[in-house]
Amino acid sequence: MLFRVDCNSKTGFGHFSRCLNLGRTFKHYHQGVNINFAGNYNGFSLNLLRFYNINCELIESDDFSIVFPSIVDCFDLIFVDTYFLSEDRLDSLRGISERLVFIDDSGVLDYNDFFCVVNFRHNAQHLFKYQSQHSLLGSQYLIIKPELTSVRNIKKTYSGSFSKLLLFTGGSPLNEFYLSNVMEFLSRFAPQTVVTHVGNPSLSHLSYNNYINVSPSHDIEDHLLNTDVAVNTGGLFKYESSYCCIPTASFSTTALQATDSQILATAGLHADLGSILTFDPLNPPASFTRFVDDSVFRISLVSTSISKHPQIPTLKLVTALCHLI
Known about the structure:
globular, Rossmann fold, 2 domains, 13 strands, 37% helix, 13 helices
């Protein structure tokens, strides 16, 4: 199978990560499967592909015509991350293969008659109606790193207290102003909490009380194991931390993230903190003060995660895809 996804300054790491972890899960449970990637990759993602012994074809453009016609017949399934897809580019793929699987977020493109669409956003089965031949929708098909299952098993017994907070901003364009606002809030409402910030390396020079800055890495399970609660700026991480039964509060940086965060908050899976762009530490949203002050609320987030997330959702997705082919 082939995964067509980029990982560079234009594409969030979560898009590459979900493809990588789906491929790893396929390979673990079906050892005869040959996993291949094609895309434009930075050094970090290339090293990961080499580490997991996954074949890759490097291309300098996101124009599918460069790579698809020459190799399409070699694969039983071709997965396409839709981050960079336009309607015109999607139309150019019609007829190129009978087994195209799109990993989608927004539900705005016309997938009529394509083989399958995967959208693991919470409640996607009720939010979107795809016209593809098959669709696998909802967080029951969440794609996670396999190592996170053991984190989940450990974190299920959360007691309600916290002394360590993971602030995960990943590759988001969080600048010093927004970070200082968040740290000002935490210094006022949780002054004894040790904050580990995993995010933009350009902010590594900043210093706050009880603050540790760490550059992003693929070993997210180590950070999740070593925290009691998590605050993040949207993307895939809020799903990963919620799955791991870690009380989570999420800022948004885009309209799509904001909508998704509202849905997750309504489901009781995390606290929605609104846009990081308008956050005022002197007038914080009630959801943030509740998240910090209310241990019963934090315990309820864990209980909801246990009840709503399958134990190994990516295996459920792999099994469903195998049944389709």
